[in-house]
TrEMBL record:
Pfam families: MarR_2, ROK. Keywords: Kinase, Transferase. Belongs to the ROK (NagC/XylR) family. Residues 29-70 form the HTH marR-type domain. One of its GO terms (molecular function) is DNA-binding transcription factor activity. This is Putative NBD/HSP70 family sugar kinase. It comes from Humibacillus xanthopallidus. PANTHER family: BIFUNCTIONAL UDP-N-ACETYLGLUCOSAMINE 2-EPIMERASE_N-ACETYLMANNOSAMINE KINASE, ROK (REPRESSOR, ORF, KINASE) FAMILY. Gene3D superfamilies: 3.30.420.40, Winged helix-like DNA-binding domain superfamily/Winged helix DNA-binding domain. It comes from the Bacteria. Transmembrane segments: none annotated.
Amino acid sequence: MTVSEGTAARLGARTADQMSVRRHNLSVVLNHLRVHGGRSRARIAAETGLNKATVSSLVAELLARGLVREGEIERGSVGRPGQTIELDAHNFIALGAEVATDYVSVIAMNLRGEPVSEQRLALDTAGLRAEAVLRRLAGLVDSVIDPLAAQGAVPVGLTLALPGITDPASGLVWDAPNLGWHETAVLEPLRTHLGEPGYPILIENEANAAVLAELDVRGRTSPPDLLLITGATGVGGGIVTGGRLLRGSRGFAGELGHMQVDPAGRRCRCGRVGCFETVVGLGALLRALAPADDPVRDPSIDVVQRLDVVRSRLEAGDPRALAAVEQIGDGLVQGCGSLVNIFNPGMVVLGGYFAALGPWFAPRLRSDLDTEVFAPKSGGCRIELSTLGFSAAVRGGALRATRHVFDDPGLVPYRAEAGHLSGVMS
């Protein structure tokens, strides 16, 4: 190697290192604003440990990329007041989508994590081929994106949440028993139906996506060990230990719905007998609550509307409805007790239909859980209800879709180039 070649190599390595440091610092500033809200440049520097000149340069780049904007003058700060810098809620949107057993849904959220549009379509997905479901879902995605794109918003990514074992690397759903999907390609057909968009598309287990949303809504008040049990036709679980989502060695952890709780019970769609979801899933509740021809068991009716009817019957003291909830409560206490014995979470969050009917489930769980938990006082576990309704998984999906932007803001083109993100965001 000649002297000039060696010098060029050293200069190239130094430049690469400088670029890497800058990308890291851009991420630090953007994430700081996401977590803490609007800040002046001086305050960002003080709180992150970066020097003021560096912060000014980083903010200028984030402004040019349309990721932040200047807000009001910061009040109450020491020294000369400065203009706040905050995440821009208008230029970019992240998308979350979900395929459940009786609906598909889509949400668009801005980079502040605020929903800007959401649609849900009642659909008997278990009765349709995967291709048909994904085509309907793509149409729903377009109906959410198109009005926002007309206003100048650019999608940065989409995460599809599914009730089963997913493989993000291959884009396959290995097993989603309640949908009847086995080793089913999902990503490629969805990309095709969406017209090969430039933004990245990911897949995620729906309970894992939901627990990401639960962590986000609780912020710094969230306990480091948390268990989400979300109820729909199936039952899913999201497990947080030490502040991190537990995925397992292959990403398959959290299939709480398929732990056996009744060896002599009903056969599950997974092929086993007495799975947790056969005992406490929405299907179990509705079978106990109403005959087959009752509208509350009609999957073509939106699940929220059906649960409103169930709630009305409970409030009216309907004996069959109350007996059904009592039956589900028995199974919920038993299953939650086993899970608390294994994971010792600081909090169990009930999501999905468990939260929708929370006034009937939560008191029972709080009063009886101690009888199923070996540790005293339920091991310090408290019971809370999700406030996200049936939007938890799509919200978590949208949050997941923003991750690459916050990890490397330099992937986002400067606004002058940002007519679309084809190639840049992929």
